[in-house]
From TrEMBL:
It comes from Salinibacillus aidingensis. The lineage of its organism: Bacteria, Bacillati, Bacillota, Bacilli, Bacillales. This is Hydrolase of the HAD superfamily. Keywords: Hydrolase, Magnesium, Metal-binding. InterPro entries: HAD-like_hydrolase (IPR051400), HAD-like_sf (IPR036412), HAD_sf (IPR023214).
Length: 275
């Protein structure tokens, strides 16, 4: 599917973290860091919920939206942007009267409505469910990022990706749009041998709030129609849903078993490895 989408398009937009390298050990680090702020009596329940979520055995899965205020998990339609169904932590359907019927990507406020776009957000949501504050989660996130930077040497470059992208960049325009800050971006790209691949790099992109704006700028800059553009990323809300809404192709890079939608411009793949 990856190749058939690439053949059809002229501009390919990539995310960086979780997309251009392998491995998801950092989510386990995040879980351990969150638990440091959580009373020990909740640790077992935290682990059980997290394992169920990973296995696709719980309402809390990627592609959903966590409602912090009501402590429920919403099913969200990426095309109509409707919040369709609320479930509690026992997976029971519940009625919430004080909720909007629709929520666009740019309306996710991270105060009440938290999009569960990638592997960072299930542990985050479980932590909030057990009463951790935003400050607690920020502490855990910062600590995880520091541990990751120290472990850069352990980062796994995706097998064959460097050569593949080098070839691809001769025929297509490759654009990098990432939430990471510019120094982190250059350090990582250099480490991965990908620092000469992209015709444009947009750091500190504030996805998903600003994804639509960045994607429209790509359309203008390269003078292309949405159906000539493919977006590839590991965060469904940040990189995939906004692309599909604009009529672009979207590839979601994930090991999750979730299938958030069926659409002929959407595909899910497990890795960008070519070897
Ligand atoms: Mg990412």
């Amino acid at each position: 599917m990856l190749n058939s989408f690439i053949e059809k398009t002229d501009v390919i937009i990539f995310d960086l973290d979780g997309t251009l390298y392998e491995g998801d050990q950092h989510f386990a680090l995040m879980v351990e860091n969150l638990k440091q702020r959580l009373p020990e009596k909740h640790h077992k329940a935290f682990d059980e919920l997290y394992q169920k979520s990973l296995a696709g055995d719980h309402a809390l899965t990627i592609g959903k939206v966590y409602d912090v205020q009501e402590d429920v998990i919403w099913t969200w339609d990426p095309f109509t942007t409707e919040l369709t169904n609320a479930q509690n932590w026992d997976n029971e359907q519940v009625h919430i009267y004080d909720a909007p019927t629709k929520l666009s990507v740019s309306e996710f406020d991270y105060q009440r409505f938290v999009p569960i776009g990638d592997g960072w957000w299930p542990p985050y949501s479980i932590a909030r469910h057990f009463g951790l504050t935003v400050e607690d989660t920020q502490w855990a996130y910062r600590r995880t990022k520091e541990q990751m930077a120290n472990l850069d040497g352990m980062l796994e470059p995706t097998p064959g990706l460097q050569q593949y992208l080098e070839e691809l960049s001769k025929a297509k325009k490759l654009v990098l749009i990432t939430n990471s800050e510019i120094d982190d971006v250059h350090r990582l790209l250099k480490f991965l041998g990908l620092d000469h691949i992209f015709s444009d790099i947009v750091p500190s992109a504030l996805k998903p709030m600003n994804t639509n704006k960045h994607f429209k700028e790509v359309l203008t800059r390269y003078d292309v129609k949405p159906e000539q553009v493919l977006s590839i990323g590991d965060n469904f809300m940040n990189e995939v849903a906004p692309a599909l809404q604009l009529g672009m192709y979207g590839i979601w890079l994930t090991t999750s078993n979730e299938v958030p939608l069926k659409n002929d411009k959407f595909a899910k793949i497990r890795t960008l490895a070519t070897e």
